[in-house]
Amino acid sequence: MENQKRLIAINDISGFGKCSLTVALPIISAAGIETICMPTAVLSTHTGGFTGYTYRDLTCDMPEMGKHWKSISINPDAIYSGFLGSFDQIDIVKDFVDNFKTESNIFIADPCMADHGKMYAVFDKKFAKAMAELCAKADIILPNITEACFITDSEYIEGVQTEEYIISLLNKLLDIGAKNVVLTGVTFEEGKLGAACMGQDRIPQFYFAEKLPGAYHGTGDVFASSFCGALLNGKTILEAMSIAANYVCDCIRRTQAMDNPITYGVDFERGIPYYLKELGKI
């Protein structure tokens, strides 16, 4: 039997709200990938729509965790970074990638910092520039449209976009140094929402699914986590992107039938069998 693949996930832990590591760990593990967690912070809930949450910063622990893993020769097949709460954490992850990146593994960066045309309240344009430097080290980056615009200093277009606009964003993102781009939140017509990818061949590829009503917290993490799991199961970037998009839609449809606020996140747990079927595991 071949060795189990191993991924290091760098993200925060929000105890309630279905996002970050509480999404990444179960989804990537269900895909058969050993998932090693480097928590950047521990929160009682995510910060979108909740007040009074607790927050424990773990910035000082991150380098020490990396040193220990290096000392016991942990060699990941992939490194996946998500939400990073400060410039210091970006620098730590850059150093971590320098220490653990090899020719045979991949670094996937999800530059979680903005959505719906706005930066998250704790960030500014200087942070976007720092995040761009991290993305330059990545084999694959997973920005949404808003993040792509801030990273490349481009105009944000809300609603339906043109293919030319999306291709321009993809090219600008590749120009910063990333080897491959998967851009989410792409829509060329009403009722359809999807993603676009482009590699060094500069040939864009697209995938679209039904655009479902609502804006649920954590769907970006569900997409990124299921993308990572699919990629490490041998799927191409386009295949992994398509599987992730379909899984997110499946989670949203099931959640719409529930009586929960959107801040609670989506029912990804009961969709894991669907995801595994998409991977060809069941």
Could you please describe the fold and organization of this structure?
By secondary structure, the chain is α/β, with parallel strands linked by helices. It is 38% helix and 21% strand. The protein is built from 9 helices and 11 strands. The protein has helices spanning 21-30, 61-71, 87-100, 125-135, 145-152, 163-175, 219-231, 237-256, 272-279; strands at residues 6-16, 34-45, 55-57, 78-81, 106-109, 114-115, 118-119, 140-141, 180-186, 192-198, 205-210. The strands form 2 sheets. A 9-stranded mixed β-sheet has the order 3-2-1-4-5-8-9-10-11, sandwiched between helices. The model has no long low-confidence stretch (mean pLDDT 96).
Number of helices: 9
Biggest sheet strand order reads 3-2-1-4-5-8-9-10-11
**Distance between the amino and carboxyl termini:** 18 Å
Order of helices and strands: EHEEHEHEEEHEHHEEEHHH
Biggest sheet, open or closed, and with what strands and sense?
9 strands, mixed
Beta-strand percent range: 15-25%
Low-confidence stretches: none
Number of strands: 11
Overall form: globular
Instruction: Give the % helix.
Output: 25-40%
What structural class is derived from the secondary structure elements? alpha/beta
Question: Rg to the nearest angstrom?
Answer: 18 Å
Mean pLDDT: 96
